[in-house]
Amino acid sequence: MSRRLQRSPLTFQVTLTVMALAIFALAMVVGFGFYATVQADSVSLERQKILFANGMRDRIAAVDREQESIAIWDDSVINAKAGNVAWMIDNISVWMYSYYGHDRVYVLDAADRPIHAMREGNVLAPASYREDEPVLLPTVERVRRLIREPAQENQADGPVKLAAGDLVELGGKPAILSIMPLLPSSDRVIQAPGSEYLHISVDFITDALLAKIAGQYLLAGARLLPLSQPVGEAAIPLADSRGVILAYAGWNQERPGSALVREAGPALIGGALLAAGVLAFLLRRLRRASSALQTSQAEAQYLAFHDTLTGLPNRALFEDRLRRALLTASHETAKVALIYLDLDRFKHVNDTLGHPAGDELVRQTAARLQQAIREVDTVARLGGDEFAMILIDVNDIRGAEDVSEGLLQKLQEPFKLADDQVFVSASIGIALSTGPDADADDLLRKADIALYEAKKNGRGRYQVFAGDMDDLLLRKRQVESELRHALNGGTGIKLAYQPIFAADGSTILGAEALIRWGHEVHGGLPPAQFIAIAEERGMIGQLGKWVLREACRFAVGTELPWVAVNVSPLQLRDAGFAEQLAAVLAETGLAPGRLQLEITEGVLLDNNDTTRAALAALRRSGIAIVLDDSGTGYSSLNYLRRHAIDKLKIDRSFVNLLGRDESSEAIVRALVDLADALNVGVTAEGVETEEQKALLVAMGCREFQGHLLSLPLEPAQLLRLAGLLPGKDSTPAAVSA
Prior knowledge:
Layout: H1 2-71, H2 74-81, H3 85-92, H4 94-100, E1 104-108, E2 114-119, E3 122-124, H5 129-148, H6 150-153, E4 164-170, E5 173-181, E6 198-204, H7 207-216, E7 220-225, E8 235-239, E9 245-252, H8 256-270, H9 275-305, H10 315-329, E10 335-343, H11 346-353, H12 355-372, E11 378-383, E12 386-394, H13 397-412, E13 415-417, E14 420-422, E15 426-432, H14 440-456, E16 462-464, H15 467-487, E17 493-501, E18 508-519, E19 523-525, H16 527-536, H17 540-556, E20 563-566, H18 569-572, H19 577-588, E21 595-599, H20 601-606, H21 609-620, E22 624-630, H22 637-643, E23 647-650, H23 652-655, H24 662-678, E24 681-685, H25 690-699, E25 703-705, H26 715-721
Parallel strand pairs: 15-16, 18-20, 20-21, 21-22, 22-23, 23-24, 24-25
Antiparallel strand pairs: 1-2, 1-6, 2-3, 4-5, 5-6, 7-9, 8-9, 10-12, 10-15, 11-12, 13-14, 17-18, 18-19
Helix pairs in contact: 1-7, 1-8, 1-9, 8-9, 11-12, 12-13, 17-19
């Protein structure tokens, strides 16, 4: 009994010690577990906030990119200014709602008056814009300032993007707002500065949108929290550009640490007497939780830097890799090549086969691009059908050209989409780093300019950036400025007249007015050069009106039967052109029957409502319509019949080969017979030899124009040649053609 009593305190002591150690160990484990739980939950919450904020920024940027896909488009400019409501519904309003989910779309004219409105897929009266105007007006005014004064907005960072956006509150709901001007995508459509229409897109931030963003980062329970509702820790503010909070985006907080404690709780209770085992168990579970957290972070990081449709690097990762590549190349002799690529007429595939087919085309294109480059290079999707490639260790531009040729060949192979074979092409712009000081932004700009040149020069090709592209832009701006000065009272622009003769070679039937510009520095500029600049910079209306007024003023003071003036397709697309021409005739006093307008076959192929109405109005007034350069384009008997042309002009390229090329002779004969069948006149231009004239007379042609008969003449020289003005020289010196 005494031994038991002696042992008991020792046993109790040992027991207490063991229990104390166990309790201490358990307390340490519990304390460490609680600390780890709090830290894991805190780190996870910060990660969730960052991911959600990145998701919101990506959505805002996506709205901007989605809007840009239709804002920079020739057809958008043409149809918006023409007031083509059906087209705007199918392409820039209801289409934006059905494909991209934009809730509201407005189109404003150059005076910021609404011409089109859409809400939630329903087209409304344009006046419904007034309900939202107080909220949208500040951003509209900011875009207008960007258009008027781009240099003041950002002098150091290059051209300013003519767009603005913000988070706004409409009808008590927060929304993403993006406003862009409608701009041409090519030099085929020109609009005067200040005449830009605006496209407004509104994407409401809803529970569904937040759930979609949350789903990208494996978060659940995303919802919109109004300011009147209590906000928990798992939320981020949605604030506008002034910092005013409009609402909060909340979600169910992911708590990996707390989840771990809930799972390990029963094991902790059951193993209270086995502190060491519990501790080992907790350490093992914590390691697993840490691994799961790292995996989740890795997945989120991947999603933040890769395109979800193709798995390629996105714009953020692409720009980071480009800067790293340039930094590495600055220490070595090798260079970096940047390739911009986008598919030609990608929207046509979307419209004809559907957007799933468009997505599949993007995926297949991405796969082909990856196969065409080395593993060390980078291919990225920048958005839509636009891709970019970084080629490192390139010795010269030939290496980039070889890769581009391979890319074009791969993309020429048919794509299998929705049980259809689809053939597409691509345009490529190439820029090469120039030295150790190469700048990523500058290289991006050069590749973008080269891509624009590739598209402008025919698509389905590649274009290497050349230094003279910048020089060309500068020269165009200089010619534009000087042309404006010449039209606003300056000197140098004048008209020459090339007479058109009857078959006898002496009777003058009329004359064609030809514009000439004797530049003070560059001498005589080719008309095609400065006319193209006038069309590109929105000056063709002013230039064309000057030519018409001068030609009519000249003709009314002579006895010439008629005078012919060339008209640009862009002039005929102006709904007010017929009225403007009527005003010129009234001002000068020239009878409409003494004026002929020469148009190209492209005008007929355009075949839009505005052009048809203009041609019909002109013919009703008595003005004759002449189809110039007949046979060189896509001629259609249906177009000739529908537009009721008054005369065909046989192009000089066919006349020049008469007597030497049987096919050209057959074409000319067919054109003469066609004119006879349509009961319209026919003129042969470019007649330079007696043999050509004789063949044309034999075919039935009765009007001739060319150097054999007369070069373009000064007005006084033409009148002297026609015997309408006294003078000694009956064969005056000609003006250079």
